[in-house]
Fold these 3 entries.
Entry 1:
Amino acid sequence: MDLDRYLARIGLDARPAPDAEGLAALQSAHRMAIGFENLDIPLGRGIRIDSESVFDKLVTRGRGGYCFEQNRLYADALTALGVACRPLLARVRLGLAEGVTPPRTHVCLLAEVGGAAMLADAGFGGSNVPPLPIVDGAEAQTADGAGHRLRRIGEAGTAGGQWLLERAGSPAATDGRAAPHADWQAQYTFDLSEVAPDDLEQANHWTATRPGTRFTALHVASIPQAEGFASMVDRDLTVSHAGGTDRRVIADPADYARTLREVFRIALSADEAAGLPLFA
């Protein structure tokens, strides 16, 4: 991990302190600088989640990535800053009906900060998530005005998970999967079981290759903004902000590449964009 190059990529001039405030500053900077995207899947390149590959893609080449990539990079940065952390696997509940048990296709982190366990997640594409103490009822707010909380809902190893992350806020500041109200909605569930490297490889492979899923059937990109959220699903762009929500349809590969660069801070050339099935 070249920590200084990573910090430059996310716009931080100094190394944050290894405490709760530093964690919040690092996570916010990461989320607003490195867009969430799955575009290597439709481009047929596959997703590699070893540290070297992830650093090269997200930092050196200025691309984005999805949770297995984002939180690999984030975990390496935390470790370089002296913050102990380990991965957790989660079931994404956003947009699903009650009673549906999805697979564990999201990775987040348990970070040890000041002797306390914290949920750290720089790779959730559905909305902006702040660090939260892993304590029943813990709450925090993000710059878009949304509230976030953790609730303990079951024993470790149960299908429902031991912990539930919820969000209450404008559905416009999400990737479009939220229900059309601002009340508490489930984001994902997880437990604190140990996760081995092969568990991550297995979950990443399923997520990147299973036909008919969100990541193999759609082209997605999202990024939190200072007071809102930007999301692009195929050619439909939605940008929420303090003044409202703007929507438009992407015209062509050049427009797509420009929008990725200017809105999502993702470097993809127009020639690469033209190779997406979206423009076939």
Note: The mean pLDDT is 95.
Entry 2:
Amino acid sequence: MSELAKQECEACRADAPKVSEQELAVLIAEIPDWTPVVRDGVMMLEREFKFKNFKLALEFTNKVAALAEAEFHHPSILTEWGKVTITWWTHAIHGLHRNDFICAAKTDELLSE
């Protein structure tokens, strides 16, 4: 289990600091399969997971949903035949917070369950 995946999300307020460029470089190295993307001026973390069929993709979607509820931090989830795209960002600050990297690392851990 990665060091990030061992951490817990903290409550995040609208005045919480966004991840700096330096922090981004360090944190993204810990989750190399994730890509920072910018949509509507908001930086997010995104990863596409591939599966053999829709049933497996849906099972993974449900695991991510359970993780999101447990952490009280909710991503965008797009479930399609054979793939699931997960996008993490912090709505309250319109950008990336450490919580997003923690949840991305925890999402990666779900593949080994």
Note: The chain has four helices and four strands.
Entry 3:
Amino acid sequence: MPRLMLSDELWSKLEKILLQHAIYNKPDLRMTVEGMLYRMRAGCPWRDLPRAFGCWNSVYKRFNAWSAAGKWLKIFKALLIDPDFEWVFIDGTYAKAHQHSSGAASDQPEAIGKSRAGNTSKIHLAVDAYGLPVAFD
């Protein structure tokens, strides 16, 4: 079994927030969320997600559905409790986009630009004095 990110105490707090944002309490909810966090931490392809987290495709589909519905953003905002704005640090990085990721017929803005390295998107993160994220764009 892979190393888990959330202690039982943190999971109980996060579970309450998830349930408040219309995420159903299925029996595999914790392992699904742990799989999503593992994938974000490790940066591995979805297909390489350890089997202990469940079927990679199921975890991927739930992650995409929650993202498309704006649930992850609502969860992120719910976790922002009393930030310390004595200091705010901002950092940015470029994330490489797939060569076929831009140019689709869509009304949505894509925020994908060209550089020497190919298609990229800039990501910004602001953290408070404790190093906890307060905003990302």
Note: The radius of gyration is 17 Å.
